[in-house]
C-alpha cells in the first residue's frame, strides 16, 4: 500500500487516518501536526453539536453518512462514556417583547443564510420536554423546537479527537508531533516520492517516502499548500472565521439531568451576534456565537489571543439566559476559547483530489498510486461532518468507490 502523509490532526485529519488505518497497514500512514498542544484548534474548542439533515443539498449525503457513523462509533466504543455522545434537541429561543417593541424571532437568523440551521422547518412543540431546564424563562419569550426526534446529537469534540488519535496510534499510525512538512520531493520521473518533515522540538529533518498527501490543516490549509507547492499558481480558496467560546457549569445541569438528553438553544442575534448554547454530558454548558472575521489567523492554534471583551459579552449572555435570576451569578466558568473555523466562499467543504496541473512543477504517480488531496473548509459544521468526510477521503485516497457522491464538493 502506498504511504500516505496527512497534514493536520484536527478532527478531519484524525477521522481520515482512522478510516485509512482500517484498510491499509497503519504504519504506512503518517500524521503531521505542528501545534505543541494537540487539538488546540477549532476541533478541540467547538461545541460538538451534530445534525443529520441540516445541510445544503451538496453536503446532504456526506452529512447523513457522518451522522450515521457518529451513532455507530458511539454504539461500538461506548461513546457516551468516552466522548459524551448523547441525543440532543434543538430549540429556538426568542426573548419576550416589551410594549411596542418588535423583536427578531429566535429563528429569524437561522433562516438568514450562512447560518447553522438555515432553511429548517420550524415547528411549535408544547411539550416541556423540549425546553431545557437550565434556560431562564422570562415573560413573553418563545421557545420552539427546531429539530426532529433523533436527528440531532451532542458530543465533546475534544474527547472524540483524543479517542480517534489514540486509536490510530495504538493501531500503529505514525504521529509526527510537534512537526511540520517543509518540502516535497520527486523521483527521476518527476513524480512525488517523499516529504521532508521537520521536528520543531529537536530541529531534526526526516525524509518520509510517500506518494500520497492529504492536506487537512483546517484554516491553515492554503498556507500548507503554498509551502509545499511554491510553483503552483493556484491559491486554495479557504480562509478563516474566528469564534470565541465559553464553557460554564450550572447547578441546573448536572449528572442527574443528563439521561434525558442534551439541548441546543439558538437565539436571535443583533449585529451578527447570535448566541448558541449547548448542554453537554459532564455538567458542561457551552456558549458561543460571537464571531469575528477580522481576527487574523495566527501561525499556530496555540498562539491565538483571546479577547477579554468578547469573553465578557459571552459571560453576560450566559448570565442573562442561564442565571437563576437577574442578579444572581451562580455559574462557574470552566474554559474560555478562541479558535478559527476553516471557511469557503460557497459555505461548503472541499473534499477533492487536487488536479495534477494545479501542483506546479511536480507530478504524482498515476492511477490510484499517488496524488494530493484536500479535505478542509467545513466552516461551522466540521465536527458533525467529520466522520463522513474522513470515511469518504479514506476511500478516495485508497482508490475505492466512495460511500457517497462528493463530486459537487470539488474546487
Ligand atoms: C466556536 C466554534 C464552535 C463550533 N461548533 C461546532 C459544532 O457545534 N458542530 C460542528 O459540527 N462544528 C462546529 N464548529 C466547526 C468545527 O470546529 C470545524 O469545522 C472543525 O473543527 C474543522 O476541523 P479541521 O480538522 O478541518 O481543522 P482544525 O481543527 O483547525 O485542525 C487543523 C489542524 O491543522 C494544523 N496545522 C496548522 N498548520 C499546519 C501545518 N503547516 N502542517 C500541518 N498541520 C497544520 C493545526 O494546528 C490544527 O491542528 C465550531 C467552530 C467554532 C470556531
Ligand atoms: C409558535 O408559537 C408562537 C406563540 O404561540 C407563535 O407566535 C408562533 O407563530 C408559532 N410558530 C409557528 C411556526 O407556528
Ligand atoms: C455524482 O454526482 C455528479 C453530479 O452531482 C454526477 O455527474 C455523477 O455522475 C455522479 N457520480 C456517480 C458515480 O454517481
From TrEMBL:
Domain FAD dependent oxidoreductase residues, every copy: 5-396
GO biological-process terms attached to the record: retrograde transport, endosome to Golgi
CC terms in the record's Gene Ontology section: cytosol; late endosome
Top-level lineage group: Eukaryota
Protein name, entry field: Oxidoreductase
Annotated source species: Hyphodiscus hymeniophilus
